Automatic annotation (TrEMBL):
Coiled coil region boundaries: 206-233
Domain BppU N-terminal: 3-145
One of the Pfam families matching this protein, by short name: BppU_N
Keywords: Coiled coil
Entry protein name: Phage baseplate upper protein
Domain of life: Bacteria
InterPro entries, A to Z: BppU_N
Length: 461
């Protein structure tokens, strides 16, 4: 990670300010560009305990950035923190109109003097759009999108199986009508039964069908009521977000279909899911909705954490070739599409791929193909941080991952340049990681081998 040092006197007296380094980046940079900031007040280290650090700036194109999440306090009593620039900080070329750090405690605020940021053009990469970046807004948008996706998924899981049942009800209705027509013809021609016997049987059929219609109409009304959860002035504010207006259209479309079908219902209500106690041989062989038991012999089961070595799969099927499977209690799911499992199992819960102690020269053997995951969570024991964690994207085979850590060193009561550590990892193949380098440089000395180690590797879908 690239790092620069900045020094500010919080009093904003120009004669007390150190000459600041020019921060230079390129359009598209971000997440690996950092500054380490030291604050003083009248020549004395400025205590920032209890204060929040915010970066504020106006980018070269006039868009604004207000970032509350990029700063990490290194030494509060001595006024030191590190700030990592997000990708939106380097999204337009030119010089910032203004850039500074603000310190907040409740409604109290103070700020540093401005410093210069220059962003170079990127003539290679396209579609790097510059927008306003405000932490609270980004977090709100992410939460609204998550809630919306969860709502749509929940409703589709109810509607799609019900539509399949309705199609079957139509077929049953046609068959019943044909039977009644035959009975009418028989009664009129007096071929098999007399009129009194026919009327008794006909009344029994009609009464059964009437009760079935009432039961299913109740189910339909419950479904319609559950879909009318958003209004024009919804207290959650969903109608004020342009991106969610498509939900209204989807809701109206389903309501129209329900109204059209409401007068044609001729069978019983939706039945519950069947629990299958036999061990499932292959996930891809599931063709009906139900609950299925699996164990270590079941094929096409994903790698799971130790407490999920066996259990149940819930299957919701639209038809024998299309549906959704979820491992109950493990938050892992996959779609069956056109008769085949689609892409890979997905989960928001990290999956433990390896645990132990790996030092320089070690080869880590993972429990699963590393390319089944989008990111890795790596637990590390550095010299300066025994409980460090790093999130990294999964590279291709034969590519390398670099993990860095820096910390100040105490010498004769004063903090000095300190220690800079680096771990190098080679992705040998789909299931093996080689720890080929663990080094540390102290102050201005050359780097030497260190005792840093990796203690766990998790995968995130």
């Amino acid at each position: 990670m690239a790092n620069q040092d900045l020094f500010f006197d919080i009093t904003k007296q120009f004669e007390d300010q150190a000459n600041q380094q020019l921060v230079v980046g390129r359009v598209g940079d971000g997440a690996l560009k950092a500054v380490t900031v030291t604050l003083v007040s009248n020549g004395t280290r400025y205590n920032i305990e209890g204060l929040s650090v915010i970066f504020e700036g106006i980018k070269p194109d006039g868009t604004r950035i207000i970032d509350k999440s990029g700063a990490t306090i290194l030494d509060a009593k001595n006024g030191e923190f590190r700030y990592v620039f997000p990708r939106q900080a380097f999204s337009a070329d030119g010089e910032y109109e203004q850039a500074f750090f603000k310190l907040m405690r409740d409604e109290q605020a103070d700020s540093t003097l401005e410093f210069k940021i220059k962003i170079k053009k990127n003539k290679v990469e396209l579609n790097i759009n510059s927008t306003d970046y405000i932490t609270e807004v980004e977090q709100l948008i992410a939460k609204l999108k998550h809630d919306f996706d969860a709502f749509v998924s929940d409703k589709l899981n109810i509607i799609e199986p019900l539509e399949t049942k309705i199609d079957a009800y139509f077929d049953a209705a046609d068959a019943i009508q044909k039977s009644i027509n035959v009975l009418n013809q028989v009664a009129l021609t007096k071929q098999w039964i007399n009129v009194e016997e026919f009327n008794e049987y006909k009344n029994t059929v009609i009464n059964d069908r009437t009760q079935a219609i009432e039961n299913l109409e109740t189910k339909f009304q419950q479904l319609k009521n559950s879909m009318n959860i958003f209004t024009e002035n919804d207290e959650h504010g969903m109608s004020f977000i342009d991106g969610y207006t498509s939900l209204k259209s989807m809701q109206l479309s389903h309501q129209k279909r329900l109204v059209a079908l409401e007068n044609l219902i001729n069978s019983t209500s939706r039945s519950g899911l069947q629990v299958n106690s036999n061990v499932l041989d292959d996930v891809n062989n599931i063709r009906e909705s139900g609950i299925y038991w699996f164990d270590s012999s079941t094929r096409n089961i994903p790698v799971r954490n130790g407490n999920n070595s066996n259990g149940y799969i819930e299957a919701i099927m639209k038809d024998p070739d299309n549906g959704m499977f979820t491992i109950l209690g493990a938050d892992i799911s996959i779609e069956k599409w056109q008769g085949q499992l689609h892409q890979r199992w997905r989960s928001s819960q990290p999956i433990l791929l390896w645990e132990g102690t790996a030092k320089k020269g070690s080869v880590i053997e993972l429990r699963d193909n590393v390319h089944n995951y989008l990111k890795l969570i790596i637990n590390i024991s550095f010299y300066t941080d025994k409980n460090a964690t790093r999130f990294v994207s999964v590279p291709a085979n034969n590519e390398r991952i670099y993990l860095n850590q820096s910390g100040l060193r105490l010498s004769q009561g004063n903090l000095k340049n300190g220690n800079l550590e680096e771990i190098g990892i080679l992705v040998q193949d789909d299931t093996h990681l080689s720890l080929y380098k663990t080094q540390m440089a102290t102050d201005n000395d050359n780097a030497v081998d260190s005792e840093a180690s990796i203690t766990a590797v998790y995968g995130i879908y």
